[in-house]
Amino acid sequence: MAFGDFCSPGEGMEMLQQVCSKQLPPCNLSEEDLLQNPHFSQLLLSLSQHVDESGLSLTLAKEQAQAWKEVRLHKTTWLRSEILHRVIQELLVDYYVKTQDTDLTSEDRKFHETLEQRLLVTELTRLLGPSQEREVPPLLGLEKADLLELMPPSEDFVWMRARLPLEVEEQLKKKCFTVLCYHNPSSDLDSETLKAAKVWNLAEVLAGEKQQCQAAKSQQKEQMVLLEKKSATYSQVLLRCLALLQRLLQEHRLKTQSELDRINAQYLEIKCSAMILKLRMEELKILSDTYTAEKVEVHRLIRDRLEGAIRLQEQDMEKSRQVLNTYEVLGEEFDKLVKEYTQLKQATENKRWTLQEFNKACR
């Protein structure tokens, strides 16, 4: 494919897998991005020939690898001296602990005191630094010659130096056994010979486990890259689905909403009618349970009698109304006669009551 030509979908996916998965650092690029930007695709292909997976140029990556190799060599040398120094310090600490609990032989005391004295003088000599062209005054005004006078006798130093490898070897063996038992607790019950054999292969076992961990980390990194790519792809698919759903809602919601409202209205109307009929049925049920045939017959008789009494009262009321109408025709003269009649009747009643009282008194 020439530079600047548009790539086909199959070529775009092949380019995406080749460039973004193997030769370049992880990047969230889709096939659509490469199809829409063919010049950028060619740039990635050209760039992948000059960089590694970490993004460094091949020359810089080679120099970096050489620098890391030198760093590892210096680190190994420093670790050896640091381990030896710490082992010697632990020997002296163990010596001070033993002096509190047990009685040591004169040879042990002589060995540890000579070792401590030699170690202190060596450390102080390093602190003083080089004596040539010194611009600052020496520490505490001491010179190397002053410290060298504190060195133990040469015979004692030679004797201590001959014994030191055995002591260091014994201390390192204890440490190795401790590491072995921590790595494999079942080895704690093994014999010393079997432990030594396991320690001999412990470095290879740890190296193999480290290689497995690195392989697992590399596989995890690849899985993470694949997961990120799938997440990006799924996110784009979900966004497209959401856009499609939104468009479908906008197009079909107005059409279906009116039909849905009509169906809901019909449903509510039918439900309301059913509730009214149910209430009427309950009312009739209560009435039928309350009023039996005997009660209805008694109520009918009572009603007939009440209606008859009402008719008689209406007839009496009609007669009274006719009499009143007749009296109203007579006018004021009739009113005077009524008043006079009332007065005479009241006077008669009074005289009758007085006569009754008089008759009671005579008796």
Automatic annotation (TrEMBL):
It comes from the Eukaryota. GO terms for biological process: centrosome cycle; spindle assembly. This is HAUS augmin like complex subunit 4. GO terms for cellular component: centrosome; HAUS complex; mitotic spindle microtubule. One of its GO terms (molecular function) is microtubule minus-end binding.
